[in-house]
Specification:
- This protein folds into two domains: 3-61, DNA polymerase, domain 1 (Orthogonal Bundle); 66-329, Alpha-Beta Barrel (TIM Barrel), CATH 3.20.20.70.
- It has twelve helices and 14 strands.
- The chain has helices spanning 10-19, 25-36, 50-59, 119-122, 131-145, 164-175, 195-203, 219-225, 228-231, 234-248, 266-275, 302-314; strands spanning 3-4, 60-61, 66-72, 78-83, 89-96, 101-104, 108-110, 125-128, 151-154, 187-191, 209-213, 253-258, 282-287, 319-321.
- The strands form three sheets. A ten-stranded mixed β-sheet has the order 3-4-5-6-9-10-11-12-13-14, covered by helices on one side. Strands 1-2 form a two-stranded parallel sheet.
- The protein is elongated, with a radius of gyration of 21 Å.
- The model has no long low-confidence stretch (mean pLDDT 96).
């Protein structure tokens, strides 16, 4: 096989079909079959000639991830474990919000950042995912569930802005009207704070949304919790956020996981408000999800959570206490590990 279907953007299909002497519109037809109709074999593409289908079969592989396991939470959250071509394994999650569904997609096998509250980093880093492996997770989830998924968040395993080229390429195909045709406002990248990547996102031609994993409002504490802060401290991070906000006009969501007596005092809420002054952020407060590698870390008590939120309210910072989803199957924030057992 010379080509991999999911590694090809629309322009790649058009160039290939021109080389084969096929009409240009055939490229959009093939993409519609794969991305919109979820046809994952060439013989399903019945408006193509048999000769073309046979040629596609002989020259282009359909390398979709193989589902090893699907787990269903008591709240309806679904977690998928995928086997990739080289044996790497990643997890992704489907969240059901009643009226709509959100796919939480991985961008790396493992994670190199080693945040102390995250199980993904505790299991080390293997490699970046290709654009096809990123797209494959999403398309397979739609195929398995027999319905379109309304939203996608790059909030699974890995740091998407450390795999910027493949993530941006996948987003272009998701957004392309001749491919998946998913609206820009339905796509979100979550980052631990890769300042240059945030600036690149500010210049990205598709105005997708940004979510920042903050978890601490000063460099001393954040560097202990998130080693990436030593490379991109808060001053440079906030400058990148302001550039993104100014260029796109999009509101930034901030994720803040409350860990008992680590980062959950009202004083840290006041610091957070001061740090993000002028950005008009929306803060998701996340009760910490326990992980096997750090049993000493505990979820904040209801009293401490309420006090933290009260301080944000006092500072007129819009926020929401996120409803826990999928923790019983290790599918909540920070719990994905790509495990096989």
């Amino acid at each position: 096989m010379t080509y991999d279907a999911l590694e090809m953007a629309l322009n790649d299909w058009q160039i290939l079909f021109a080389e084969w002497g096929e009409q240009k519109f055939r490229a959009a037809q093939v993409c519609q079959w794969i991305y919109a109709k979820k046809a994952f074999t060439w013989q399903e593409m019945t408006n193509l000639s048999k000769a073309l289908r046979d040629k596609l079969h002989d020259n282009i592989a359909m390398n979709f991830p193989i589902m090893i396991r699907q787990q269903v939470s008591r709240d309806g959250t679904r977690k998928y474990l995928w086997h990739l071509n080289d044996g790497a394994r990643v997890e992704s999650v489907l969240l059901n919000h009643g009226g709509h569904k959100t796919a939480c997609i991985s961008s790396q096998a493992g994670c190199p950042l080693g945040c102390v509250f995250c199980e993904t980093g505790a299991n080390g880093f293997k490699r970046d995912l290709t654009r096809g492996e990123i797209l494959g997770q999403f398309l397979m989830m739609e195929k398995i569930n027999g319905a379109d998924i309304n939203n996608i968040v790059f909030m699974g395993m890995g740091e998407p802005l450390l795999n910027e080229g493949n993530v941006f390429s996948a987003i272009r195909s998701l957004n392309d009207k001749n491919m998946r045709n998913l609206g820009a406002r339905h796509i979100t990248i979550s980052t631990s704070g890769i300042a240059p990547g945030i600036e690149d996102l500010a210049d990205f031609e598709i105005p997708i949304r940004l979510s920042l994993s903050l978890h601490a409002p000063n460099d001393e504490l954040r560097s202990k919790l998130m080693p990436v802060n030593r490379r991109y401290p808060l001053q440079s991070l906030v400058a990148a956020l302001k550039r993104y906000h100014d260029r796109t006009g999009e509101r930034i969501t901030v994720e803040y996981a409350l860990i008992d007596r680590v980062n959950d005092s009202p004083e840290y809420a006041y610091e957070t408000a001061a740090l993000l002054d002028g950005l008009e952020p929306y803060i998701n407060i996340i009760p910490f999800n326990p992980i096997p590698s750090k049993p000493e870390l505990k979820r904040s008590s209801q009293g401490r959570i309420k006090a933290f939120c009260a301080a944000l309210t006092e500072m007129k910072i819009e926020h929401e206490l996120r409803k826990e989803r999928g923790s019983d199957i290790m599918a909540a924030c920070g719990q994905l590990a790509g495990a096989s057992a």
